[in-house]
Amino acid sequence: MSWKYDVVVVGAGIAGPIVARNVARAGFSVLLIDKKPAIGTPKQCAEGISIKVFEKYDIPYDKRFINREIYGAKLYSPSGYELEMRYKEVSGVILERKVFDKMLAYYAAKAGADVLARTEATDVIRKDGKIAGIKAKHEGEPVEIYADVIVAADGVESTIARKAGINTYAPPHEFDSSYEYEMLIEGFDPDLIHLWFGNEIAPRGYVWVFPKDEDRANVGIGINSDNPKTAKYYLDKWLKENNIPAKKLLEVNVGIVPVGGFVKELAKDNVVVVGDAARQVNPMHGGGMGEAMNAATIASKWIVRALEEENISLLQNYTREWWETDGKRLEKVLKVRRVTEKLTDEDLDIFIQVLSGADTEKIAGGDYGEVIKALLRHPKVILSPRRIKLLKSLL
Description:
Elements: E1 2-10, H1 15-25, E2 30-33, E3 48-50, H2 53-56, E4 66-70, E5 72-76, E6 82-86, E7 92-95, H3 97-110, E8 114-116, E9 119-127, E10 130-138, E11 141-152, H4 159-163, E12 175-184, E13 193-196, E14 206-211, E15 216-224, H5 231-241, E16 249-258, E17 267-268, E18 271-273, H6 289-308, H7 316-340, H8 345-357, H9 360-364, H10 368-376, H11 379-382, H12 385-392
Parallel strand pairs: 1-2, 1-11, 2-8, 5-13, 11-18
Antiparallel strand pairs: 3-7, 4-7, 5-6, 9-10, 10-11, 12-15, 12-16, 13-14, 14-15, 17-18
C-alpha cells in the first residue's frame, strides 16, 4: 500500500497539528499521523500554558479543553519563604491535554489535512540517495507514504529525525525526569500555580501543583535525569513531608523532558524537525507547548514557501529564523538554568526573600536584568563573592 502527499507530519502532539493545519490552509495535501490509538492520550505534561498563545497561534479559546483559568504563581523556597505573583487578569490556563491535542488535530483535519491515529512511522524511504517518504504501520499493516516534505514532530525519541541523519543527541544531563500524579489535594489556592524549590526537594527542578479544580490538581516533579534517585522517590518524599495523602490518584504520568541540547540542524534536505524532537523546550521550567507552537509556525511558513516556489532549499530558512529568534532567547535561558543549578538552598531562600520585596511583575515577565539588579542590591548577596560572581555571569 502506498500513498502520496505534499507533506507528511509524524506526531500529533502540539507542533505536528499546527504545522499540518497551517500547510493544509495554504492548499497543500497533508497527512498527519500519530502512533497512539487516541491522540492526546496518555498525557505527559503539567498542562499549564500562557493565555497569550490562543490569539498568537490562532487557537480557539474553547472551554472544552480548559480546566481552569490561572491568575499567577506562588513560589516556595527550601525554608518556606514565599513569593506570590497575582494578577487581576487571567495569566494562564490549565489545559486538558487529552482534549486539547485531539482538538488541534481536529483543526488540522478541518483545514484539509488527513489525520490517521494508530499509524506509526518506522523508517524513511530513500530513492536515488534522497529521502522520498516514510515507512509506517497503519493499524498493523505496512504502508509507504511518499511526500515532498517530511516533518519529524515525533517527540523526544524522534525516530524520523534520527533515521534522516539529523543529530538529535544530547547528554543525559540535558534531560529532566518527571513524575506526576493527577490527584485530589486540598489547601492550595486554586487560582495560582504553586512551585517548590530546593536541592533536597527537587534537585535542579521543582515540585509543582497545577490546579484543575478546587480540590484536584496535577502534582508533579522534575529533576535532572542523571540523578541516582528517581523523580518518583522525591515526589513521594515531598508528599509525605507535607502530610498530603497520595490515596486519591486519578492518573500517573512519567516523562522525559529535554532542558537543553537544542538541535542545531532543524532542516536537512526535505526533512524538518519541530517541538520536543528538536529539544525546543524552555530549559528553565521545562515547558514546551508554547515553544512547539512557535517553531511550528516558523516551520510551516517555510514549508509553504518551499512548496509554492518548488525550492526545497528554502526549508533552511526555518533553521536560520528559529536560531535568530527563539534559539537565541532559549540559549540565554539555558545560561540561567546552568547558573541556578549551582545555587545552594540558602541562596534560594535569600533570593526568594529578596524578590518577594522586589517588583514581581518584572520577574514574572522574565526580565532577568531587573531581577539580577534587585538581587545585587541586597546585603546578604553583596557579602558573598560567590553569589555576586554567579549573578554577574548572567548579566
